[in-house]
Amino acid sequence: MLLLPDSVRRLAAWCAVILLVSGVVYVGIRLCAEVRTAVVPVLLALLGSALLRPFHRRLVKARVNRSTAAGVTCVAVLVVVGGAVYIVVAALVDSGDEIVTSLKDAAKDVARHFGAAGTSLDDLVSNSRELLSKFGGTAASGVVSGVSVVGESIAMAVLALLLVFFFLRDADRAVGTMRSLAPHGTADTVEAMGRRAFHAVEGFMRGTTFIAFIDAVCITVGLLVLDVPGAVGLGALVFVGAYIPYLGAFISGALAVLVALADRGFVIALWVLGVVLAVQVLEGHVLQPLIQSRTVQMHPAVVMVTITAGASIAGILGMLLAVPLTAAAFGILHELRERHAAGPEPAVSPSPPEPSGS
Fold first, then answer.
1. 298 DSSP assignment
2. Contact 169, 66 (CB under 8 A)
3. Buried-state track 155-184, b at ≥16 Cβ within 10 A, e below 16
């Protein structure tokens, strides 16, 4: 090694560090995947706590007991989310028959246009029955798997809500616990790193909530102008879906278009599609990079690449968690860099005693 130039030795050292860090990250991801039923609720609870902490803090400042304040906050979340789901489901149930009828008419139109090619509606039905009889066992196993996934998701959601309660109630003890677990002489650094990481997550949740609110308001106003039924419920669905990048916007927008198609016809459905696409373009090219890159202090390109990487690693959940986790990691790195640049604090030597005057 001594025979190599200094630049090559530095490059080799950096390569070794990058490989070591990549290996540790990979092993950590694999371990988290194996125990995802425990890791995912903790991460979701941290996101929820970062979003709900201002409300909980106001209740505590109003001299409400910390446990009571945490319980009220969790109940408020259940009421808001449950109310939004009820409004959306009620709006969709009211127009469900019309949506199904519109879809059947659209299928007949498509079959009429392509009937000469042997793809009539009767052919489609017979082919579908043949496929169902051939792959019935696979479908049944898929249903059983889907039921187990739903049960697992409900269990993780309940656990996450309970963890939100404990995180909010015992947040004042977190700093003391962190300092007690830190190695000797590193308590201040560990505390600063933890605060930086949590503030980054708070910024992400505030930015996402703000973007979700703008999306919901814009789409709700557009639906009200076009006189689409269930506009408020669909707007609530847009707000909730904004926390799931891409897929949430696609599902909420598709439901809005279907409701418009069922109740107002093909032309209004096209206008609704235009409104949804315009809002999504505004979010993807303006709001998401601008607001979220400011709140989490990351470049818009890093935000986009992070979301893509999270999707490739863990799907929808990875898309949801990728940006806040990366923001927390960036906050920790910035804190370490600032402390490394500042250097160790100089030791204060005791001043010598002044000579007594004669």
1. -
2. yes
3. ebeebbbebbbebbbebeeeeeeeeeebee
Q: What distance in Å separates the CA atoms of residue 288 and residue 243, rounded to the nearest whole number?
A: 12
Low-confidence winner among 108-112, 148-152, 197-201 (lowest mean pLDDT): 108-112
**One-letter amino acid of 151:** G
The whole-angstrom separation of Cα 96 and Cα 73 is 34
Residue of 206, 179, 190, 170 whose CA lies nearest to 52: 206
pLDDT cut 70: percent of the chain above it: 72
Residue labelled with tokens 């590193």? 186
Rounded-to-integer distance, Cα 27 and Cα 191, Å: 25
Instruction: Output the pTM of the full model.
Output: 0.65
For residue 102, the model assigns a pLDDT of 57
129 pLDDT tier (thresholds 50, 70, 90): low
DSSP characters over 221-274:
HHHHHTT-TTHHHHHHHHHHHTTSTTHHHHHHHHHHHHHHHHHH-HHHHHHHHH
Q: Which of 41-45, 117-121, 230-234, 328-332 has the lowest mean pLDDT?
A: 117-121
CA distances (Å), origin 355, targets 30, 134, 351: 67, 103, 12
SS3 26: helix
What digits encode the pLDDT tens for the residues 230-282? Answer: 777 778 778 877 776 666 777 788 888 887 877 777 888 889 889 988 888 88
Cα distance between residue 293 and residue 295, in whole Å: 6
pLDDT digits (tens, 9 = 90+) for 97-108: 655 665 566 566
Alpha-carbon gap, residue 4 to 21, rounded angstroms? 24
Token reading at 1: 């090694």
Tell me the chain's radius of gyration from C-alpha atoms: 27
* Sequence-distant (≥ 6) Cβ neighbours of residue 15 within 8 angstroms: none
